[in-house]
User: Fold this.
Amino acid sequence: MRLDILTLFPNMMQMFFEESIISRARKKGLVEVCFHNLHDYSLTRYGSVDDYPYGGSAGMVMAVEPLANCIEALQRERAYDEVIYTAPDGELFSQPMANELSLKGNLIILCGHYKGVDERLREHFITREISIGDYVLTGGELAAAVIADAVVRLLPGAIGDEQSALADSFQDGLVAPPEYTRPPEFRGWRVPDVLLSGNHAKIEQWRLEQAIERTRERRPNLLKQ
Assistant:
């Protein structure tokens, strides 16, 4: 997989991708991550990529031409499965979406800023708009990092135990059940006996019941879906 991330702050993004699972996946050659400084595509001597919005509203808007030039330069080099824009009003990011994107080959992620991008870019270049929640961030870099992290960890070989990713919360539409490790008793607090029984059928049944109950308590909307 190749991820091309279009950002105003490539140095900030690089720090995130040099740690943990994403870093190991890059070193294994499972994913190639490239950062593109949008200032490099500016049409002004000052490197700016934003301008005042038509109509006189407050704030600034990312201009269409430098962003389009950056995307087209990348598309001349290779085909992309998706050109993603991180937008507060985009489709809400989810585990099924992460699963779907992990099967893609090449992705562009454009980090939004200011009041957003010129609508013409969204109409003619963007293939998917994704939001990580109903709130507004200073910039789309954090959203891009969240999307990349959720996707890359699903690539075969990214995690030592691939079955672990398949048992994560939301993979089956439920939140994960509670987990325990050694010691079996701490300050009088015991691990549930069923987990120590060695009866795998009963353990799986217990985990399913716990997942359903925890989902009902914490995320009842998932059960409705």
About this structure: The beta strands are 2-7, 32-37, 50-51, 61-62, 82-92, 106-111, 128-131, 185-186, 189-190. The domain at 2-152 is CATH 3.40.1280.10 (Alpha/beta knot).
